Each structure stands twice: as C-alpha cells, then as structure tokens.
Amino acid sequence: MVNAIILFNVERERVNEVAEKIAAEEAVSEVYSVAGRYDLVCVVRARDNDALAELVTGQLLKVKGIEDSETLFAFRVYSDHDLDSMFSIGLEEG
Fold this sequence. Notes:
Oligomer: single chain
Strand content: 25-35%
Strand order of the largest sheet: 2-3-1-4
CATH architecture: 2-Layer Sandwich
CATH class: Alpha Beta
CATH topology: Alpha-Beta Plaits
C-alpha cells in the first residue's frame, strides 16, 4: 500500500466541482478544501507506485480546473487511531 498526500491549486470558481471529481476516484480516501497556499488536500491510499502514478497523471491531472499540484509520498504513517485499533485486536470492552 502506498500512501500519499496531494496538494492542489484549483481555479477559484471550480473548487467544489474539482473536489467532487477527485473524491470519486477509488484510491482517494479524503479530500479537504483548505485555507492557505493550496485549495485542496487529497489523501490517497493506492495499491502500489504504478497505481499512484496512474491516478495522478492518468486521472487527476486531467480534471478541468486543476492549475497545479504537488504530490507528497508518505514513508510512514503515525496515527493514534491506527495504533489503538492495532493494539485492541482481541480485547473486549468491559
């Protein structure tokens, strides 16, 4: 599994439309509209590097309204949620 975060600059009048198209992609788990340097932040969980490459260059960058993007590859994921679920396997709440 390859995790990535993709940052998008989008035409101002198309932010909602672009966000919905990005969110419809299978490997995309979340899309956030944000304030700051970028307009949208996308969290991706792809099968492998080839699947990520196809998603970014073959699908997402063809969406009308995207002006620029930056893809950040995740080397490791640190999440209390993930750690809690991993260590609670087999434990029953009492």
